Automatic annotation (TrEMBL):
Source organism per UniProt: Chondromyces apiculatus DSM 436
Protein name: Response regulator of zinc sigma-54-dependent two-component system
Claim: Magnesium is one of the keywords in the record: no
Gene3D superfamilies: 1.10.8.60, 3.40.50.2300, Homeodomain-like, P-loop containing nucleotide triphosphate hydrolases
Domain of life per record: Bacteria
Amino acid sequence: MASALPSPPPLAPRVLVVDDEPGLRQVLDITFRRQGYDVVQAPGVRPALEAIRQAPQPFPLILTDLLMPDGSGIEVLAAAKARSQATEVLLMTAHSTVEAAIEAMRGGAYDFVTKPFSPAEIAALSAKALEKSSIISENRRLRAQLERLEPSAHELLGAGAAMQAIGELIDKIAPTRTTVLITGESGTGKERIARAIHERSDRSKRPFLVVNCGALPEALMESELFGHEKGSFTGAGTRALGLFREADGGTVLLDEVGELPAALQVKLLRVLQERKVRPVGAAAELPVDVRVLAATNRDVEAEVRAGRFRQDLYYRLNVIRIEVPPLRERPGDVLRLAERFLQRFAAELGKEVRGLAADARRALDAHPFPGNVRELENMMERAVALASGPAIGLGDLPASVAGLSASPSPLLTELPPAGCALDEVLGEVERRLILQALERTGGVRKAAAKLLGVTFRSLRYRLAKHALSTEDTDEDDDAEATGRESSLPGGPGDDFGHRRPPLPGK
Ligand SMILES: Nc1ncnc2c1ncn2[C@@H]1O[C@H](COP(=O)(O)OP(=O)(O)OP(=O)(O)O)[C@@H](O)[C@H]1O
């Protein structure tokens, strides 16, 4: 049997020491290492800036000389604080520069020490600075946790009229027991709306349970929803309550209700009418008190017309209808949501990213968001992780978003009086169509090639020509390995946000 591995020792705090005097760096290195710190040395401002930029985690403590041949410690201070407010900076100065050091304190330095100083003095000051840094980091972590768990669980963000109207409707219907059908494209926020209805109702202290109606085979789905008696089928070793009874007093969301098999549609209708469930293998029906919400991204009316969804069940579910518009039809919401996600991920990842640069705002505004809010949320997480400055720029967004709005050449269908550069114009058309195809296929190039009516090899060549992507996705690898073409997603929003469009080749 494998024995348990000893847990790794806690990571030593990393200290960056910046000074052009090798002797002083050496003394500090020894002093800090004796205290159990990990030390990184930088002989000047430039290498210090590089170290700050490249460190996998921000340094909790930096000691920097104020005046160095290649610049000032103030630059080090500014870069450190831009990367993380949790970094504490101690300035080391000669007597003649005390004034400047005091000035630096206003820029956020923790303290300053005048040279020469004793190792004991510097060790005591550093310990205090590190304590402050760890308190700030801990506060930030807790704040991020709170933001993630509390208001966001049911808060509905969106400044536009559509989301305002939905918010008002939720307030009106939340206290009732009415069934609600929530429709909209994938990723528009249907589950979030259902959660908001539950949270604003007097059932909020009871469970809110979600079941994906298309996820299980029919037999298992029945037991998942209504429970089963012990031994009622092979594998039913114990009795199970089922979702409806587990949620007693609360709310059940039937997600993807359009995919519920026909036999279960009849049983669900009975539950809604009689407010009773019959567990698989049970002789009697049992009463349940559950509010039912249903969501789907299918066109339910079309499903009813095609005979795939029972009309009587449709009427039962559709008592109140909430149609969630796609993000591209919610002007104003994109930037507001983007900023909110950005704040959340910056707090979670401990990065000092504070806003969106003008070019990134334009690109986001122009993007159609086939994956809706989910796509935007994932995009912001990636952008915050990549960002190296205080604002998200165009380069931090996926190529497919950045490329469309950053295009230098206009699209022409008529020859301008002054003529045009035909190759450039045609190249731009090609680039845009390729980006859109990749967007639609979630970055799967085999599928994109098919959409564009070209071979995979030809698409690869064109991608290289436009410096768009050089890496295969897993799906491309699979497709190449088995010789099959990847299947295209079923709709524009399919699977969005779970896969990433390729990064621009640099
Ligand atoms: N108004 C909003 N404010 C903040 N976050 C939102 C909002 N709408 C959606 N989101 C976030 O977007 C993501 C997708 O939302 P949700 O799962 O509710 O969409 P959905 O329409 O139910 O998707 P699907 O049809 O694929 O199940 C979630 O992470 C959710 O928290």
